[in-house]
């Protein structure tokens, strides 16, 4: 349960960090000694996470036909 919550929070955080231009993703291993951190490192990995986030962003931009960085709108929170 905690692993799913951590991963969900990570995805939400990365989605919120999306800007108007190119997106740079980073993976920070702050819990590398915990059970979830070890599982993340051995089963998912940082490179796979970065690739998944890039693929997801590209998919979303394609769905909304935002193929050029100038077409992408920054989402504001209220």
Largest sheet, in brief, is: none
Low-pLDDT runs of 5+ residues are: none
Please count the beta strands (DSSP E, at least 2 residues each). 0
Determine the number of helices (DSSP H or I, runs of at least 4 residues): 3
Average per-residue pLDDT, rounded, comes to: 78
* Computed CA radius of gyration, to the nearest angstrom: 14 Å
What is the percent of helical residues?
55-70%
| Principal-axes shape call | elongated
- Run of helices and strands: HHH
Beta-strand portion reads: under 5%
| Alpha-beta content class | mainly alpha
Distance between the termini: 29 Å
Short description:
With 78 residues, this protein is mostly helical. The chain has three helices and no strands.
Could you please describe the fold and organization of this structure?
The structure is a single chain. By secondary structure, the protein is mainly α. The chain has a domain at 2-17 and 32-66. Helix content is 55%, strand content 0%. It contains 3 helices and no strands. The longest helix has 18 residues, at 46-63. The mean pLDDT is 78.
Supply the key terms.
78 residues; mainly alpha; signal; Uncharacterised_BSP
Which helices and strands occur, and which strands form pairs?
Blueprint: H1 2-16, H2 35-44, H3 46-63
């Amino acid at each position: 349960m905690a692993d799913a919550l951590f991963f969900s929070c990570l995805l939400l955080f990365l989605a919120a960090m999306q800007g108007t231009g190119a997106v740079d993703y980073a993976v920070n291993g702050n819990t590398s000694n915990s059970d979830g951190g070890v599982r993340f490192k051995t089963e998912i990995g940082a490179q796979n996470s970065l690739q998944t986030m890039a693929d997801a962003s590209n998919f979303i931009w394609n769905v909304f036909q935002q193929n050029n960085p100038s077409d992408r709108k920054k989402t504001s929170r209220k």
